[in-house]
Write a structure and sequence with these properties.
Elements (H helix, E strand, L loop, with lengths): L7 H17 L10 E6 L2 E2 L1 H7 L13 H5 L5 E5 L7 E2 L4 E7 L9 E7 L4 E13 L5 E3 L9 E12 L4 E9 L2 E7 L1
Antiparallel strand pairs: 1-5, 1-7, 2-4, 3-9, 6-10, 7-8, 7-9, 10-11
Length: about 180
């Protein structure tokens, strides 16, 4: 689904094996994790902006190549350590997506989530992470500082200036083990 057992590749592999595993389950059997929750938040991070695209207008061999190279940038940045990333949180974490692995007919392929801004600034990225829910009580949180798992982030092409109390809408789409996040003002 996403980005990376480290986090994205592990979850992506997990989602590919679930349909086969469900067919092999005996009556009363369960798949672990039973469901996956994806959380995200709005942040301001100049570091993410600078590391996600070629900056400046300096010429290389007489050509300004930054605009050309930036056309091929990957929209999702993986292997991100959110706890050590220089950033300013502009919202509280919100649940972006729920993937039920036991009852997949409950899943939706897209959803819109309203996010309330709790601090004024410029939204430059939407980091996201997962909670693997073994059941209703036991969760593995991939955002913990002590965890070996990393986070991922969607870095915006153009920062969005926001004020405290404002609401932005995150459009989250899940399709074929891939997730996209779009920010709407």
């Amino acid at each position: 689904m996403l980005a990376y057992i480290s986090k994205t590749q592990g979850i992506k592999r997990l989602l590919n094996y679930v349909p086969v595993s469900r067919c092999l389950l005996q009556s009363g059997g369960k798949i672990f994790p039973q469901y996956v929750l994806m959380f995200g938040m709005l942040v301001q991070s100049q570091t993410l902006v600078e590391e996600s695209a070629v900056q400046g207008t300096e010429h290389t061999l007489g050509l300004n190549i930054a605009p050309f190279i930036n056309q091929f940038q990957v929209p999702i940045r993986v292997c991100l350590g959110l706890s050590s990333l220089p950033c300013v949180p502009l919202s509280e974490p919100v649940e972006l997506l729920r993937l039920d692995l036991m009852t997949p007919y409950l899943n939706t392929s897209n959803r819109e989530v309203k996010v309330r801004v709790c601090r004024s600034g410029r939204v430059t990225a939407v980091p996201f992470w997962f909670h693997l829910c073994l059941d209703d009580e036991v969760r593995l949180d991939t955002s913990g500082e002590a965890s070996h798992w990393k986070q991922a982030a969607v870095v915006l092409d153009h920062p969005i200036q926001v004020e405290t109390g404002e609401e932005l809408v995150l459009s989250v789409e899940h399709r074929k083990s891939n997730v996209s996040i779009t920010v709407k003002q």
